[in-house]
Amino acid sequence: MQQTIDKTQIKPHMPVVCSEGGQFGVVDHLDANNTIKLTKDQNGQHHWIPLSWVTSVDNEVHIDRPGKQAMQQWSTTEPNKS
Description:
The protein is mainly beta. It has a single domain (about 15-75), classed as PRC-barrel domain (SH3 type barrels, Roll). It has one helix and six strands, in the order ββββββα. It is globular, with a radius of gyration of 12 Å. The termini are far apart.
């Protein structure tokens, strides 16, 4: 069952934590197209993850997959606005 996430709780600079508990990103902002834009990595590259990956939000944004899998599946280009 997919839990409904209150996306208004997702704020800039919040850590993004994988299902293994490790931080793999930081929120830049929430895009209008239900994606989370992450801050630039050490190479100066932004990444986007879908809001559907988020399982819960407290002082961190928790996602449903291991960090390695998330980094293989995230987008390096801004998704098309719908």
